[in-house]
Description:
The protein is of the alpha/beta class. It has seven helices and nine strands. It has helices at residues 20-28, 61-68, 86-107, 141-160, 181-184, 188-200, 240-246, and strands at residues 9-15, 33-39, 51-53, 73-76, 111-115, 163-169, 171-172, 185-186, 206-211. The model has no long low-confidence stretch (mean pLDDT 95).
Amino acid sequence: MDMDTPPPFARLLLTGAAGALGKVLRQELRRDTRVLRLSDVASLGSAAAGEELMPCDLADKEAVDAVVQGCDAIVHLGGVATEQPFEQVLEANIRGTFHVYEAARRHGVRRVVFASSNHVTGFHPVGEVLDADAPRRPDGYYGLSKSFGEDLSRFYFDRYGIESACLRIGSCYPEPRDRRMLVTWQSPGDLTALVRRCLRVANLGHAVVYGVSDNRELWWDNRLAAHLDYAPRDSSEPFRERIEAAQRAAPQDKAAQFQGGAFVQAGPFESK
């Protein structure tokens, strides 16, 4: 964006701003809005120029309503980000996402970028290529919560016209960490580019898009989100030799059979 061009938003809300991905987008989205409102239950540090800090528990409906008020668009990353007992996932990811969309409806917010997950389809076999119409096969309570969020966002689009992008984010780290991530990796730069496209595209509608970089091997096809014009620039290929040398043989356990990896296995908190 040209420095003389005004940002497209007056106030943009970023939930989950204290998380790993939230910290990346906190830095990058400042140029997309005059005011970047940041929310999380964890510490947000000090506000930089152009930032507003509004700590909030997503399970608190009234608090979420106050955080959303006055915003033009929402990037919703907040919630439990790993497999946890259902009761924990329920409060932050299910109740919390409902509170975000209901507040958006009440305050006239017309666009939400929702951080879904590849774990919505985690029980599909490794090697199967999926598009946005592939059957959902959540691999745990976390994946179930994101599947609910996708349905919720579709409902709010169909009934109230709130446009949403559901980002089925793969593995977003500075570098891929293992063989699975050679396929699922999305660089922080590519994530930022995807979020920005979802915020700025003229007609977003209701879109489901896989958050993945331009890796040599892919399990996900974004042809049904072509209108977003998302063109990832990075690839896991430069990391392949190092990762394959460190992990010489691909694991043969259940986690290696399904796209969700370790998420398909029961957690230690589940009853025997």
